């Protein structure tokens, strides 16, 4: 029996009827429950164990509002351990860390349909201001989190700092990098995917997953609980607001739209994969500080969006998984094939591409950021004659990339910067109209961050990569250690510091700055900092 047949049997055996989320009708129960919350509410929360085991988080900062998040989970790895009832959670926001000057408060019901998670959109806040927040249920108080609203549109900013992170495989290392990140002077954290990994229990793991490969809604919820229970990850969430987007492992490795990594050409198998995708999207929404417009409808979820920060930065947050066509020539590292040049192939989908170009065309901020999953710049991985490329990245979707670089060359939005992750290593690269011609115009810059833990300790250099770098003169920097990127923006300059961990396979790793690169306002291209 093939791998997909095994997957299909396992999926059918493990997905319970109540867990299936197919189409808009899947939320009927949630809508009914939310219309009559008091009828199903616990009058007074009583818990045998501490219910805020997954910490707190905030995200999606606007000038006058921000999203606050928590989830009640006294038994986090056992479905949460909550009764099938609505529970009132009190929340409050203060202008001081000791929570003495309360400026907003209220009550929200945590419902079983949302795994007893809550998201509070707090309105009426002052722009560009730090706030502190916490939740209370029964006699228990959550940890206190800190968040910050965005500056007013077109307001002048002297400086804006954020961290870029991705790829945190629980089994392959500790999240010590987040401990150091939480101590930084940042306005924001941007996470570009692979927040969880869907795989089963690995051999020789640094620390183990809590189940075989996840397929059901309860599986995905328990996996998020495992990851979010990590104290270093909780510290980074509690310290800053986050902007998040997913990549593939939040569902399944290297999936493309409705196409599983395994062979699923028959329509019935695609339908089964869409069931899994719906469950995964639901769990992602339940555990991220996203705004309500992102709530999934069956197997669809609105994730691409735009956030601006004064006169300095606009983040165009992309989704390069949900709408892409299948990877050409397979999803490995291969030579070019005819499918690479298919003008109908797309990594973003047409609607998202049009939305991106329209936003870039209208933008009046100094730095225009594409916060997305996989590297845009070409990486020819064969030294000398010939070439091989990763078909899962923009390298596999030449028509999409050509449309983007042609747009950047012709319309010239101010200082376009791509941010990406996925490849478990640090890269600094120029974006060009023709990567095979060193004389072709530079149309933007790209900073790719390494993983928080995926891939284990890694190393500073890699002989295989070093061998092909001369064939890629637009690549200015590579490093194979774990870590994150710290970005500082002013009206004159963008600076990216690459932070690297000495090790992640123990909890004693230290962090250091490996390199810095800058982009000057009005001067496209990456320079040594």
UniProtKB/TrEMBL annotation:
PhoD-like phosphatase metallophosphatase domain residues: 162-498
Signal peptide annotation: none
Cited InterPro entries: Metallo-depent_PP-like (IPR029052), PhoD-like_MPP (IPR018946), PhoD-like_sf (IPR038607), PhoD_N (IPR032093), Phospholipid_Metab_Enz (IPR052900)
SUPFAM superfamilies: Metallo-dependent phosphatases
Transmembrane region(s): 20-38
Pfam families, A to Z: PhoD (PF09423), PhoD_N (PF16655)
Keyword Transmembrane: yes
Phospholipase D N-terminal domain mapped to chain residues: 54-149
Keyword field: Membrane, Transmembrane, Transmembrane helix
Protein name from the UniProt record: Alkaline phosphatase
Originating species: Halotia branconii CENA392
Taxonomic path: Bacteria, Bacillati, Cyanobacteriota, Cyanophyceae, Nostocales
